[in-house]
Amino acid sequence: MKKTANILVLPGDGIGQEVMRQGLRVLTKASEIFQFDLSIEEDLIHGSAWKKFGTFCRDETVEIAKNSDGVLVGAVGQAGNENLPHSSDPEENDGLMRLRKELDVFAGLRPAIVNDALLDELPYRREVSNGVDIMVLREMCGGVMFAKPRGIEVLSTTEKRGYDTAAYTTFEIKRLAKVGFLLAGRRKKRVVSVDKSNVMESGFLWREVVQSVGDEFPDIELEHMYADNCSYQLAVNPSQFDVIISNNLFGDIISDQAGSLAGSLGMLPSASLPCLPNIGETCTAGIYEPVHGTAPDISGKNIANPVGMILSIALFIEYGLGGVEESAIVAKAVESTIANGIRTKDIGGQASSETITDAIISEISCV
Ligand code: IPM
Ligand code: MG
Protein backbone atom coordinates (compact mmCIF):
# COMPACT_ATOMS: atom_id res chain seq x y z
CA MET A 1 0.00 0.00 0.00
CA LYS A 2 1.19 3.55 -0.78
CA LYS A 3 2.77 5.37 2.15
CA THR A 4 1.57 8.83 1.15
CA ALA A 5 -1.84 9.71 -0.21
CA ASN A 6 -1.79 12.82 -2.41
CA ILE A 7 -5.39 13.87 -2.59
CA LEU A 8 -7.37 16.65 -4.18
CA VAL A 9 -10.51 17.34 -2.15
CA LEU A 10 -13.45 18.98 -3.90
CA PRO A 11 -16.41 19.18 -1.48
CA GLY A 12 -18.56 20.84 -4.17
CA ASP A 13 -22.08 22.07 -3.48
CA GLY A 14 -25.01 21.44 -1.13
CA ILE A 15 -24.56 18.41 1.14
CA GLY A 16 -21.22 17.76 -0.61
CA GLN A 17 -19.60 20.02 1.99
CA GLU A 18 -20.93 18.15 4.99
CA VAL A 19 -20.47 14.59 3.72
CA MET A 20 -16.90 15.50 2.77
CA ARG A 21 -16.23 16.83 6.29
CA GLN A 22 -17.29 13.48 7.73
CA GLY A 23 -15.46 11.50 5.05
CA LEU A 24 -12.20 13.29 5.84
CA ARG A 25 -12.58 12.43 9.52
CA VAL A 26 -12.74 8.76 8.52
CA LEU A 27 -9.80 9.15 6.14
CA THR A 28 -7.71 10.78 8.88
CA LYS A 29 -8.48 7.91 11.25
CA ALA A 30 -7.67 5.39 8.50
CA SER A 31 -4.33 7.10 7.86
CA GLU A 32 -3.42 6.79 11.56
CA ILE A 33 -4.41 3.15 11.80
CA PHE A 34 -3.08 1.97 8.43
CA GLN A 35 -0.07 4.28 8.68
CA PHE A 36 -0.03 6.40 5.60
CA ASP A 37 0.53 10.15 5.34
CA LEU A 38 -2.07 12.49 3.96
CA SER A 39 -1.16 15.33 1.66
CA ILE A 40 -4.38 17.17 0.91
CA GLU A 41 -5.14 20.07 -1.42
CA GLU A 42 -8.64 21.49 -1.35
CA ASP A 43 -10.34 23.40 -4.15
CA LEU A 44 -13.71 24.53 -5.41
CA ILE A 45 -15.73 22.88 -8.16
CA HIS A 46 -18.95 23.64 -9.98
CA GLY A 47 -21.35 26.06 -8.21
CA SER A 48 -18.88 27.18 -5.55
CA ALA A 49 -16.12 27.58 -8.19
CA TRP A 50 -18.47 29.56 -10.38
CA LYS A 51 -19.28 31.97 -7.58
CA LYS A 52 -15.63 32.64 -6.79
CA PHE A 53 -13.86 32.27 -10.15
CA GLY A 54 -16.58 32.56 -12.80
CA THR A 55 -15.81 29.07 -14.11
CA PHE A 56 -17.03 25.61 -13.08
CA CYS A 57 -13.61 23.99 -13.08
CA ARG A 58 -10.33 25.89 -13.32
CA ASP A 59 -7.28 24.71 -15.29
CA GLU A 60 -5.30 24.72 -12.03
CA THR A 61 -7.81 22.28 -10.52
CA VAL A 62 -7.38 19.92 -13.47
CA GLU A 63 -3.58 20.09 -13.12
CA ILE A 64 -3.63 19.26 -9.41
CA ALA A 65 -6.12 16.45 -10.08
CA LYS A 66 -3.91 14.92 -12.78
CA ASN A 67 -0.98 14.78 -10.35
CA SER A 68 -2.95 13.27 -7.47
CA ASP A 69 -3.42 9.71 -6.27
CA GLY A 70 -7.12 10.44 -6.28
CA VAL A 71 -9.74 13.18 -6.30
CA LEU A 72 -12.44 13.10 -3.64
CA VAL A 73 -15.67 14.83 -4.65
CA GLY A 74 -18.62 15.53 -2.31
CA ALA A 75 -21.50 16.47 -4.60
CA VAL A 76 -21.87 18.72 -7.58
CA GLY A 77 -24.92 20.52 -8.89
CA GLN A 78 -27.49 23.06 -7.97
CA ALA A 79 -27.00 24.09 -4.35
CA GLY A 80 -29.88 26.53 -4.10
CA ASN A 81 -31.96 28.67 -6.39
CA GLU A 82 -29.06 30.39 -8.08
CA ASN A 83 -29.18 30.70 -11.85
CA LEU A 84 -26.03 29.08 -13.17
CA PRO A 85 -25.08 29.75 -16.79
CA HIS A 86 -25.79 27.18 -19.49
CA SER A 87 -23.53 26.16 -22.33
CA SER A 88 -23.97 23.48 -24.99
CA ASP A 89 -20.49 22.16 -24.16
CA PRO A 90 -20.79 19.62 -21.29
CA GLU A 91 -17.30 20.39 -20.06
CA GLU A 92 -18.14 24.11 -19.89
CA ASN A 93 -21.46 23.38 -18.28
CA ASP A 94 -20.46 21.13 -15.41
CA GLY A 95 -17.25 21.07 -13.39
CA LEU A 96 -17.44 17.36 -12.74
CA MET A 97 -18.02 16.50 -16.39
CA ARG A 98 -14.89 18.48 -17.31
CA LEU A 99 -12.86 16.70 -14.69
CA ARG A 100 -14.09 13.27 -15.81
CA LYS A 101 -13.18 14.05 -19.39
CA GLU A 102 -9.78 15.60 -18.60
CA LEU A 103 -8.79 12.66 -16.37
CA ASP A 104 -10.30 10.19 -18.85
CA VAL A 105 -11.86 8.21 -16.01
CA PHE A 106 -14.02 6.15 -18.35
CA ALA A 107 -14.66 3.25 -15.95
CA GLY A 108 -17.33 4.20 -13.40
CA LEU A 109 -17.55 1.55 -10.68
CA ARG A 110 -20.80 1.96 -8.79
CA PRO A 111 -21.32 -0.93 -6.38
CA ALA A 112 -24.72 -1.44 -4.74
CA ILE A 113 -24.75 -3.86 -1.85
CA VAL A 114 -27.73 -4.59 0.35
CA ASN A 115 -26.87 -4.58 4.02
CA ASP A 116 -28.65 -7.50 5.76
CA ALA A 117 -29.45 -5.35 8.77
CA LEU A 118 -31.53 -3.03 6.58
CA LEU A 119 -33.67 -5.72 4.97
CA ASP A 120 -36.81 -4.50 6.73
CA GLU A 121 -36.15 -0.82 5.98
CA LEU A 122 -35.85 -1.14 2.22
CA PRO A 123 -38.40 -0.06 -0.37
CA TYR A 124 -38.51 -3.63 -1.71
CA ARG A 125 -39.65 -6.75 0.13
CA ARG A 126 -36.86 -8.54 1.99
CA GLU A 127 -36.97 -11.57 -0.32
CA VAL A 128 -36.41 -9.29 -3.33
CA SER A 129 -33.44 -7.39 -1.89
CA ASN A 130 -31.85 -10.22 0.05
CA GLY A 131 -28.29 -10.93 -1.12
CA VAL A 132 -28.11 -8.14 -3.70
CA ASP A 133 -24.50 -7.29 -4.56
CA ILE A 134 -24.29 -5.53 -7.90
CA MET A 135 -21.44 -3.69 -9.58
CA VAL A 136 -22.77 -1.20 -12.09
CA LEU A 137 -19.95 -0.34 -14.47
CA ARG A 138 -20.90 2.91 -16.16
CA GLU A 139 -19.03 4.45 -19.09
CA MET A 140 -18.18 7.97 -17.88
CA CYS A 141 -16.55 9.94 -20.69
CA GLY A 142 -18.57 9.40 -23.84
CA GLY A 143 -21.98 8.71 -25.26
CA VAL A 144 -24.88 11.08 -25.42
CA MET A 145 -23.58 13.20 -22.52
CA PHE A 146 -20.49 14.23 -24.51
CA ALA A 147 -20.78 13.37 -28.20
CA LYS A 148 -21.24 16.13 -30.74
CA PRO A 149 -23.15 17.68 -32.44
CA ARG A 150 -25.39 18.89 -29.67
CA GLY A 151 -27.19 22.15 -29.10
CA ILE A 152 -30.41 24.09 -29.27
CA GLU A 153 -31.24 25.67 -32.60
CA VAL A 154 -33.85 28.29 -33.25
CA LEU A 155 -36.36 27.15 -35.85
CA SER A 156 -38.79 30.03 -35.72
CA THR A 157 -39.99 32.66 -33.29
CA THR A 158 -41.98 30.01 -31.41
CA GLU A 159 -40.00 26.83 -32.09
CA LYS A 160 -36.58 25.57 -31.06
CA ARG A 161 -34.95 22.18 -31.50
CA GLY A 162 -32.71 20.63 -28.85
CA TYR A 163 -30.53 17.74 -29.98
CA ASP A 164 -27.79 15.43 -28.72
CA THR A 165 -25.76 12.70 -30.35
CA ALA A 166 -25.63 9.16 -29.00
CA ALA A 167 -22.30 7.86 -30.29
CA TYR A 168 -19.67 5.34 -29.22
CA THR A 169 -16.50 4.13 -30.91
CA THR A 170 -15.19 0.56 -30.86
CA PHE A 171 -12.28 1.77 -28.71
CA GLU A 172 -14.56 3.30 -26.07
CA ILE A 173 -16.78 0.23 -25.81
CA LYS A 174 -13.90 -2.23 -25.83
CA ARG A 175 -11.94 -0.63 -23.00
CA LEU A 176 -15.02 -0.48 -20.80
CA ALA A 177 -16.12 -4.03 -21.59
CA LYS A 178 -12.65 -5.32 -20.74
CA VAL A 179 -12.84 -3.72 -17.29
CA GLY A 180 -16.30 -5.28 -16.85
CA PHE A 181 -15.09 -8.79 -17.61
CA LEU A 182 -12.03 -8.36 -15.39
CA LEU A 183 -14.24 -7.18 -12.53
CA ALA A 184 -16.62 -10.10 -13.04
CA GLY A 185 -13.62 -12.45 -12.87
CA ARG A 186 -13.02 -11.13 -9.33
CA ARG A 187 -16.69 -11.62 -8.42
CA LYS A 188 -19.42 -14.03 -9.49
CA LYS A 189 -18.26 -14.26 -13.11
CA ARG A 190 -21.42 -12.93 -14.65
CA VAL A 191 -21.82 -9.90 -16.91
CA VAL A 192 -25.04 -8.32 -18.11
CA SER A 193 -24.44 -5.75 -20.85
CA VAL A 194 -27.16 -3.17 -21.26
CA ASP A 195 -28.11 -1.50 -24.54
CA LYS A 196 -30.96 -0.55 -26.83
CA SER A 197 -29.54 -2.34 -29.83
CA ASN A 198 -33.09 -2.87 -31.10
CA VAL A 199 -33.53 0.84 -31.82
CA MET A 200 -30.10 2.53 -31.68
CA GLU A 201 -27.11 2.22 -33.98
CA SER A 202 -24.70 3.02 -31.17
CA GLY A 203 -26.45 0.28 -29.20
CA PHE A 204 -26.06 -2.18 -32.06
CA LEU A 205 -22.31 -1.54 -32.16
CA TRP A 206 -22.20 -1.69 -28.36
CA ARG A 207 -23.62 -5.23 -28.36
CA GLU A 208 -21.31 -6.40 -31.14
CA VAL A 209 -18.16 -5.07 -29.46
CA VAL A 210 -19.08 -6.29 -25.96
CA GLN A 211 -19.74 -9.73 -27.42
CA SER A 212 -16.33 -9.76 -29.14
CA VAL A 213 -14.59 -8.84 -25.86
CA GLY A 214 -16.72 -11.43 -24.06
CA ASP A 215 -15.47 -14.11 -26.46
CA GLU A 216 -11.99 -13.53 -24.99
CA PHE A 217 -13.31 -14.33 -21.50
CA PRO A 218 -14.87 -17.80 -21.91
CA ASP A 219 -15.16 -18.37 -18.15
CA ILE A 220 -17.41 -15.31 -17.72
CA GLU A 221 -21.09 -15.69 -18.52
CA LEU A 222 -22.37 -12.85 -20.72
CA GLU A 223 -25.98 -11.83 -21.22
CA HIS A 224 -27.16 -8.89 -23.31
CA MET A 225 -30.21 -7.11 -21.97
CA TYR A 226 -32.23 -4.18 -23.28
CA ALA A 227 -31.97 -1.23 -20.92
CA ASP A 228 -35.71 -1.08 -20.26
CA ASN A 229 -35.81 -4.75 -19.35
CA CYS A 230 -32.76 -4.30 -17.12
CA SER A 231 -34.60 -1.60 -15.23
CA TYR A 232 -37.57 -3.94 -14.77
CA GLN A 233 -35.39 -6.89 -13.75
CA LEU A 234 -33.60 -4.72 -11.19
CA ALA A 235 -36.93 -4.22 -9.48
CA VAL A 236 -38.30 -7.76 -9.67
CA ASN A 237 -35.24 -10.00 -9.50
CA PRO A 238 -32.14 -7.95 -8.66
CA SER A 239 -30.07 -10.80 -7.26
CA GLN A 240 -29.61 -12.23 -10.78
CA PHE A 241 -27.08 -9.43 -11.43
CA ASP A 242 -23.36 -9.43 -10.74
CA VAL A 243 -21.65 -6.89 -13.06
CA ILE A 244 -23.78 -4.64 -15.27
CA ILE A 245 -21.93 -2.91 -18.11
CA SER A 246 -23.64 0.12 -19.51
CA ASN A 247 -23.20 3.34 -21.41
CA ASN A 248 -23.06 6.74 -19.74
CA LEU A 249 -26.77 7.59 -19.81
CA PHE A 250 -28.22 4.18 -18.96
CA GLY A 251 -25.55 3.76 -16.27
CA ASP A 252 -26.54 7.07 -14.70
CA ILE A 253 -30.13 5.89 -14.43
CA ILE A 254 -29.40 2.30 -13.46
CA SER A 255 -26.99 3.31 -10.71
CA ASP A 256 -29.67 5.50 -9.12
CA GLN A 257 -32.10 2.59 -9.35
CA ALA A 258 -29.54 0.31 -7.74
CA GLY A 259 -29.42 2.90 -4.94
CA SER A 260 -33.07 2.25 -4.23
CA LEU A 261 -32.21 -1.42 -3.69
CA ALA A 262 -29.59 -0.46 -1.11
CA GLY A 263 -32.21 1.58 0.73
CA SER A 264 -31.05 5.07 -0.11
CA LEU A 265 -28.96 6.83 -2.71
CA GLY A 266 -26.99 8.11 0.26
CA MET A 267 -25.49 4.64 0.67
CA LEU A 268 -23.83 4.38 -2.72
CA PRO A 269 -20.18 5.11 -3.47
CA SER A 270 -18.39 5.35 -6.79
CA ALA A 271 -14.91 5.20 -8.23
CA SER A 272 -14.31 6.56 -11.72
CA LEU A 273 -11.01 5.16 -12.91
CA PRO A 274 -8.73 5.62 -15.94
CA CYS A 275 -7.91 1.88 -15.81
CA LEU A 276 -8.55 -1.13 -13.61
CA PRO A 277 -5.40 -1.86 -11.60
CA ASN A 278 -4.40 -5.40 -10.71
CA ILE A 279 -5.52 -6.38 -7.22
CA GLY A 280 -3.36 -4.53 -4.67
CA GLU A 281 -1.92 -2.19 -7.32
CA THR A 282 -2.96 1.40 -7.93
CA CYS A 283 -4.13 3.82 -10.55
CA THR A 284 -3.55 7.53 -10.15
CA ALA A 285 -6.05 10.35 -10.58
CA GLY A 286 -9.31 8.46 -10.21
CA ILE A 287 -12.39 10.34 -8.98
CA TYR A 288 -14.13 9.01 -5.88
CA GLU A 289 -17.57 10.39 -5.11
CA PRO A 290 -20.89 9.35 -3.66
CA VAL A 291 -23.57 8.72 -6.28
CA HIS A 292 -26.04 11.11 -4.62
CA GLY A 293 -26.57 14.74 -5.59
CA THR A 294 -26.41 18.01 -3.66
CA ALA A 295 -29.82 17.58 -1.92
CA PRO A 296 -30.38 21.33 -1.30
CA ASP A 297 -33.51 20.52 0.76
CA ILE A 298 -31.49 18.90 3.56
CA SER A 299 -28.19 20.72 3.16
CA GLY A 300 -26.64 22.38 6.22
CA LYS A 301 -28.73 20.33 8.66
CA ASN A 302 -26.15 17.68 9.60
CA ILE A 303 -28.59 14.92 8.62
CA ALA A 304 -27.19 13.84 5.24
CA ASN A 305 -26.04 10.23 5.05
CA PRO A 306 -22.21 10.27 4.79
CA VAL A 307 -21.99 6.52 4.01
CA GLY A 308 -21.73 6.99 0.22
CA MET A 309 -18.80 9.38 0.78
CA ILE A 310 -17.13 7.11 3.35
CA LEU A 311 -17.45 4.07 1.09
CA SER A 312 -16.03 6.16 -1.79
CA ILE A 313 -13.03 6.80 0.45
CA ALA A 314 -12.81 3.04 0.99
CA LEU A 315 -12.71 2.63 -2.80
CA PHE A 316 -9.92 5.24 -2.92
CA ILE A 317 -7.96 3.26 -0.35
CA GLU A 318 -8.42 0.17 -2.53
CA TYR A 319 -7.74 1.52 -6.01
CA GLY A 320 -5.80 4.75 -5.34
CA LEU A 321 -3.55 3.42 -2.57
CA GLY A 322 -3.63 -0.33 -3.19
CA GLY A 323 -4.97 -1.11 0.29
CA VAL A 324 -7.40 -3.93 -0.42
CA GLU A 325 -7.69 -5.25 3.14
CA GLU A 326 -7.65 -1.74 4.60
CA SER A 327 -10.51 -0.75 2.31
CA ALA A 328 -12.49 -3.80 3.41
CA ILE A 329 -12.00 -2.79 7.06
CA VAL A 330 -13.60 0.61 6.40
CA ALA A 331 -16.49 -1.03 4.53
CA LYS A 332 -16.94 -3.52 7.36
CA ALA A 333 -17.00 -0.67 9.91
CA VAL A 334 -19.86 0.92 7.96
CA GLU A 335 -21.73 -2.39 7.86
CA SER A 336 -21.35 -3.00 11.60
CA THR A 337 -22.42 0.55 12.46
CA ILE A 338 -25.62 0.12 10.48
CA ALA A 339 -26.16 -3.35 12.00
CA ASN A 340 -25.80 -1.72 15.44
CA GLY A 341 -28.79 0.45 14.57
CA ILE A 342 -26.91 3.73 14.13
CA ARG A 343 -28.53 5.16 11.03
CA THR A 344 -29.36 8.45 9.41
CA LYS A 345 -32.91 9.43 8.59
CA ASP A 346 -32.88 8.20 4.98
CA ILE A 347 -32.30 4.63 6.23
CA GLY A 348 -34.83 4.72 9.01
CA GLY A 349 -32.79 6.16 11.90
CA GLN A 350 -32.30 9.41 13.78
CA ALA A 351 -28.50 9.69 13.84
CA SER A 352 -26.90 12.89 12.56
CA SER A 353 -24.16 12.80 9.91
CA GLU A 354 -21.66 13.33 12.68
CA THR A 355 -23.01 10.63 15.01
CA ILE A 356 -22.97 7.88 12.40
CA THR A 357 -19.43 8.93 11.43
CA ASP A 358 -18.33 8.84 15.09
CA ALA A 359 -19.62 5.25 15.25
CA ILE A 360 -17.87 4.24 12.03
CA ILE A 361 -14.60 5.75 13.30
CA SER A 362 -14.85 3.85 16.55
CA GLU A 363 -15.54 0.61 14.64
CA ILE A 364 -12.38 1.20 12.57
CA SER A 365 -10.46 1.89 15.77
CA CYS A 366 -11.44 -1.53 17.14
CA VAL A 367 -9.40 -3.29 14.43
C1 IPM B 1 -23.89 11.24 -11.31
C2 IPM B 1 -24.59 12.56 -11.48
C3 IPM B 1 -23.91 13.36 -12.57
C4 IPM B 1 -24.08 12.62 -13.87
C5 IPM B 1 -24.35 14.81 -12.71
C6 IPM B 1 -24.17 15.58 -11.43
C7 IPM B 1 -23.62 15.51 -13.83
O1 IPM B 1 -25.94 12.37 -11.72
O2 IPM B 1 -22.67 11.24 -11.05
O3 IPM B 1 -24.54 10.20 -11.44
O4 IPM B 1 -25.10 12.79 -14.56
O5 IPM B 1 -23.19 11.86 -14.22
MG1 MG C 1 -26.55 10.34 -11.52
Blueprint (SSEs and pairs):
Elements: E1 4-12, H1 16-34, E2 37-42, H2 47-53, H3 59-66, E3 70-75, H4 90-93, H5 95-103, E4 107-113, H6 126-129, E5 133-139, E6 151-154, E7 160-163, H7 170-185, E8 190-195, H8 201-214, E9 221-226, H9 227-236, E10 243-246, H10 248-261, E11 271-273, E12 286-288, H11 307-320, H12 324-339, H13 353-365
Parallel strand pairs: 1-2, 1-3, 3-12, 5-10, 8-9, 8-10
Antiparallel strand pairs: 4-5, 4-11, 6-7, 11-12
Helix pairs in contact: 1-11, 1-13, 7-8, 9-10, 11-12, 12-13
Number of domains: 2
Shape: globular
Q: Please state the average pLDDT score.
A: 96
Top-tier CATH class of the largest domain: Alpha Beta
Radius of gyration: 20 Å
Number of helices: 13
Q: Can you walk me through this structure?
A:
The chain has two domains: 1-108 and 268-367, Isopropylmalate Dehydrogenase (3-Layer(aba) Sandwich), CATH 3.40.718; 123-262, Isopropylmalate Dehydrogenase. The mean pLDDT is 96. With 367 residues, the chain is an alpha/beta fold. It is built from 13 helices and twelve strands.
Key descriptive features of the protein:
alpha/beta, Isopropylmalate Dehydrogenase, 40% helix, binds 3-isopropylmalic acid, binds magnesium ion
Concise summary:
The chain has 367 residues and is of the alpha/beta class.
